[in-house]
């Protein structure tokens, strides 16, 4: 979502208006869920997708219409209907999307620039767009950003409205249209990419970092070997940290339930050292590479040091989905697949 909003900011800065399309509700089986977005600029540049095929085609048609009437609108796509069957889109669900007209002006540029600026903050933010409804036409009155305990905006809002918008947003993982005090608001939940800490910078780590970044994780690679942990092997946006050793390697990081830990160091002792430290954090995912024999030997040592069977149940080991992998690239697919599954369950 942050990449879409960055694209919006770039287009607006060029002086172009655009249509921002996002799914605001979904029911049943749909190709994408609430929060999926795409952007159409007046020059017909298209970024993102809300489902491909008939869904995107319908959204693009609606996007072209907003440039004619500057009127935002909500559309329903029923994928159980006959028309959907004819387009090979028999998913069986329904989705609503908001096609919002966004003009290029100082206010919209300021709002979307602000979104780009907060991307590195480890806090949830909510973009709220207030609409006035005239028949089927929605006209945006104002946009503002909320964060817990604060409002970053040019307009003042009441504490009650702030609280109700924030509480509504906390229950969402994407976008939604809500009505509060007779006003319609589009709420977009902005969350930073989940942090993935990869301990070890070998061949598997290299492939895991690249693939994880492509599916929306922030990848931090940590190793005590500069010849492995470097920008040539792990180009930006991967972050690289060269450690003095794996001792106290979690010391300078805020690891929480939104953090993912992958342990793929170069040896049994380093893996045990990192795993012991990881279990003392509240990381939402911990995975360690290796055979069951190696895992059991490490677990036996940790149990003797006071860890419990419940502690060890937090660990995915052998790491990755059981898809009979062999090469570093295949192993990375199995690991990142498991990361995606863990992230989806959490949401």
What does this structure look like?
By secondary structure, this protein is of the alpha/beta class. The chain has 2 domains: 2-190, no CATH class; 195-346, 3-Layer(aba) Sandwich (Rossmann fold). The chain is built from 10 helices and 16 strands. The protein has helices at residues 2-13, 53-69, 82-86, 106-117, 159-170, 203-214, 268-278, 292-304, 309-312, 328-346; strands spanning 18-27, 37-41, 46-48, 73-78, 94-102, 125-134, 137-147, 150-152, 175-180, 183-190, 195-199, 218-223, 239-242, 259-263, 285-288, 315-316. Strands 13-12-11-14-15-16 form a 6-stranded parallel sheet, with helices on both faces. It has a 5-stranded antiparallel sheet with strand order 3-2-1-5-4, with helices on both faces. The chain has a 5-stranded antiparallel sheet with strand order 8-7-6-10-9, sandwiched between helices. β14, α7 (268-278) and β15 form a beta-alpha-beta unit. α1 (2-13) runs antiparallel to α4. The mean pLDDT is 90.
């Amino acid at each position: 979502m942050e990449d879409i909003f960055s694209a919006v900011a770039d287009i607006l800065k060029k002086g172009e208006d655009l249509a921002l399309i996002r799914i605001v509700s979904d029911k049943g089986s749909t190709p994408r869920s609430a929060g999926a977005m795409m952007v159409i600029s007046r020059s017909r540049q298209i970024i993102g997708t809300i489902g491909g095929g008939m869904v995107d085609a319908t959204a693009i048609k609606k996007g072209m219409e907003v440039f004619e009437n500057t009127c935002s609108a909500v559309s329903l796509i029923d994928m159980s209907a006959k028309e959907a069957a004819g387009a090979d889109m028999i998913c069986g669900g329904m989705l609503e999307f908001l096609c919002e007209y966004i003009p290029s002006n100082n206010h919209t540029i300021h709002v979307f620039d602000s979104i780009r600026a907060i991307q590195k903050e480890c806090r949830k933010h909510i973009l709220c767009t207030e609409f006035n409804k005239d028949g089927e036409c929605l006209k945006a009155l104002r946009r503002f950003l909320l964060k817990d305990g604060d409002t970053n905006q040019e307009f003042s809002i009441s504490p009650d409205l702030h609280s109700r918008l924030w509480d509504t947003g906390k229950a969402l993982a994407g976008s939604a249209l809500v009505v509060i005090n007779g006003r319609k608001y589009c709420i977009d939940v902005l969350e930073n990419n989940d942090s993935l800490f990869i301990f070890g910078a070998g061949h598997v780590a290299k492939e895991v970092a690249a693939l994880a970044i492509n599916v929306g994780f922030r990848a931090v690679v940590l190793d005590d070997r500069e010849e492995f942990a470097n920008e040539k092997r792990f180009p930006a946006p991967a972050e690289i940290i060269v450690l003095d050793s794996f001792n106290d390697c979690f010391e300078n990081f805020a690891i929480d339930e939104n953090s993912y830990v992958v342990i793929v160091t170069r040896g049994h002792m380093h893996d045990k050292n990192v795993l012991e430290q990881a279990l003392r954090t509240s990381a939402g995912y911990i995975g360690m590479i290796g055979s069951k024999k190696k895992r059991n030997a490490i677990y036996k040592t940790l149990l003797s040091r006071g860890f419990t069977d419940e502690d060890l149940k937090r660990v995915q080991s052998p790491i990755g989905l059981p898809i009979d992998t062999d090469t570093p690239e295949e192993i990375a697919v199995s690991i990142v697949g498991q990361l995606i599954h863990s992230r989806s369950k959490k949401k």
